[in-house]
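Sample intake sheet
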Amino acid sequence: MSEASLETVGKLVEPTRVHRSIYVDPAIFDLEMERIFGHAWVLIGHDSQIPNPGDYFTTIVGRQPVIMVRHTDGSIRVLYNRCGHRGAKVVGDRAGNARFFRCCYHGWTFRTDGQVLSVPLRHGYDDTAFDAQNPAFWMPRAARSDSYRGFVFASLAPEGPDLTSFLGGVASSLDDFVDRAPGGRVEVAGRPFRVMQRNNWKVFFENLNDAMHALVVHESSVDAARTEIARMDAEGQTSYAADVIPTMDKNGLPYSSWEKLETTAFEWGHSYLGGFFNPESYESSYVEALEKAHGNARMREILSVNRHNTIIYPSCSTQSAYQQLRVIRPIAVDRTMVEIYNFRLQGAPADTYRRTMIFTNLTNSPSSIVMPDDVEAYNRVQEGLGVNGADWISFDREAGRETRNNGALTAPATSEMPMRNQMRVWRKYMTAETLG
């Protein structure tokens, strides 16, 4: 794309509004894959998915297929899923274990760090034309990879901030996620749910910390939750579901209550929304395990952190209180794959995981009664953005009323500050401005 075109893209985002074309123009989506997903730190997976040497997990970064693999020395490598010979995709499975990777086309094999291991009829190559030590013939490595508290990220760009700098203040949400485990670690539990949504990936991110939508979009699921709460109260029923269902009811809080919650945003487009989880609803066996591991004061400090959705832009979102992680994979300008992972808390009683699964099935799974509310709204937004008419989308709510503290912005949960923050960073990525 020419410099003139980049300048044009920059004009599509203003301080409090954006042009609708950024959600519907395939050319802009193509540039996002290059400029945003080709440069940002993107979540690849969690180290618990590959505990042993040779374990691997495949996914995509933007449009680039990659492999997260545990090498023989125990280190984690992120490789492009591409043969260094003729470019074929090497690994076709989602996950597995391999002593080496073998290309299905011509049989070249590669070590789990990407280096060439063997080549059929090696004598057919002139030494000046082929050198097994030349990285040009390897499975290429991602320019950079790193992890934080077990969460593995990669950046396809050789330059830019390191992972710690990129996460900044939002790293505290990953700390919150892991600190809730009495054993100090979490692990992915089983395969994720996968949902293909008919909307642009940015629509999903804009909704996560948008408190203004909940009362309207989730009216039907709130009514269902309140009906069930009334039934359980009448029957004197107590269960894990009785602890989780009231969280669904919180979507029906009046606007005055949402205004009392805060959102906090950070430099790289990240943000989190204050939560309404009741730590008193945790089963006593879990609280006792956490207290035994950390002491009473630290246990209370850990459980006092109350956040709903955390956005690590542009690739994932966490919900620490329920050990949920959602990973966003843009597929096309109007298609987004969302993967929903559940985690177990190391050292927690076995029954603690039941709460996670109940929350998933009620809220985040394809068969839940909450997710369809959002998905329908996303679909309608995407359809509406393609309609001729007004070209600009407003993010004016509470504009200019944010407060800044140690580099972070805070505002009421009813503010559109998180969206403005995301769009500010989007513009910098897309116009190749210096970030940080």
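Comment: The first helix runs from residue 3 to 10. The mean pLDDT is 92.
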